[in-house]
Structure formats: C-alpha cells, structure tokens
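call fold(seq) -> tokens
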Amino acid sequence: MPTRREFLRNSSLLAGGLLLAPDALFAKREAQKLLILHTNDFHSRLESFPDNHPKYPGQGGIARLKTLIDQQRSSGDFSLLLDCGDVFQGTPYFNRFGGVPEYKWMNMAGYEATTLGNHDFDMGMEHLADLIHNYARFAVVNCNYDVSKTPLKGLIKPFLVVKKGKLKIGITGVGINPEGLIPAHLCLNMVYNDPVSSVQEQVDILNKKMHCDTVIVLSHLGFEYPGNQISDKKLAADTHGIQFILGGHTHTFLNDGPVGIENKKGRKVVVNQAGWAGLVLGILRLDFK
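ret:
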C-alpha cells in the first residue's frame, strides 16, 4: 500500500491544516470536527497526465484523486466535498462526451456543490442546463449571474444550506466577469452582477435569516491580480460574515497552505485554492468548539 509520502509526491496533496472557530458560536453545543475537501479547474482530467508529460508525469486523474478523498474521509469526521468551477474542457473526453463523464464522476465521489466557471459554458447554456438537469446530483450555486432569462433558470441556486451533525453550513458561489472569457452567444441573456454586493447579500441571508454556523463561498474569480480586478483576496477584504473562500480560475497552488485576509470588520477570512486538473486536493480540518 502506498505510504503517505508517496501520496504527497505523486498527487500533490494540499493540506490546509487545523482551524478553530470562535468559541462563542458553539458555547451551548458539543465540540464537532468538520473536514472540508475541495477542488477547482478539473478541466476534464479524468485520466492522469501521461508518464512523459514534462511537468506532471503520471499525476492527476480521478483514480488518484478518489484515493485521496477516501483516505481523508476515513478519519470518520463529518465532511464536505466541494468544487469551484471549470469542471469541463481540456481533454478529448469533454469534446467526445460533452461533460457527462465529469458529472458522473462527481456524483460517484460525493460532491455536494460546485459553482460556475467560464469553461463550464463552452458548449452553451442549453447543453449545460441539460447536464445539470439530467446528471448533477449536487447543487450548482452562483449569486452574481442572473440566469432568469436563460435555459439555466431554476437550475442555479443562489445559496445552499447543508447540515453536518449539529452544524449548519451556508454555501454560496460567485463567478468571474464573462466578458472576454465566454463568447457572447454562449451566455446569451445572462446578466453579470457585481460580485461583492451579490455575495454580501447572500452571506447576510445565510447568517441572519438561515442562522448558519459558518459560511463558505465557492469562487471562480481568481486568487489575486495586480491592480483592482476583483479576486478572492479582494472579495474577502471587501465583505464581512464569510469564514472561508475556496477559489478557482487562476490555477493557484498555495503550497504554504491557506492565507488569512482581514475582512471589513477586522475578522479573518481563510482563502484557499487547489491548483487544477485534480493534481491537488484542498483540505481544511476544522475543530468547532
């Protein structure tokens, strides 16, 4: 059986470490552990990269990724498996089968939610709507794309609330500006809204109306950019009430683990991203007391 060191070398396991929630949240509850596993920018990488690949020989792919997921879940803690968009595009599997194997894989692995990446529109909204309706046994969350006049109407949720033991976890999603990234005819009648105000609206609902114990944002904005372009780090700084932002789009490997960003009210937001192509599994181990 492969050792943990071999898993780390062959599959680039990314561990986020142990994080402690504020004691006040659970003053009247028993302590509970929660394991958050996350991926992003899978890009149809169902098989490992070939052994002669110059950068990732024999790495990635669902076999290795599923092994890592199962290994982490074996701890027995309550767990969440989440994705941050761009499930599709990048190998012939998508061109030939149109995303069906990717969604079937996510069902098999037990994903509970994903968000919309720009490449998830690559075969158009009608095709994406058909995939979600017929194959997705997980939620697709996004709060800043208005799809009410598109084939995706009714298929995209602004937020999701998940119960894990005694914990109530709120999840929302946010997407990048499609201009220049998604051809106009592939996202016809979809309206892009400001990510910061859209996320804050949903986070307020999750905190104040749904009374969630923690709030997670699945982002496809990108980790960081020079200048003022909206990113995960900027979203964390410009909002409040979010505990975790799990990101995608920039294919960022945070080899030193998640980063902490101070929000508008001076509280820390944990921001993490897990590379791309299934090369990395993002892991956050939380101990709520």
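The longest strand covers residues 167-175.
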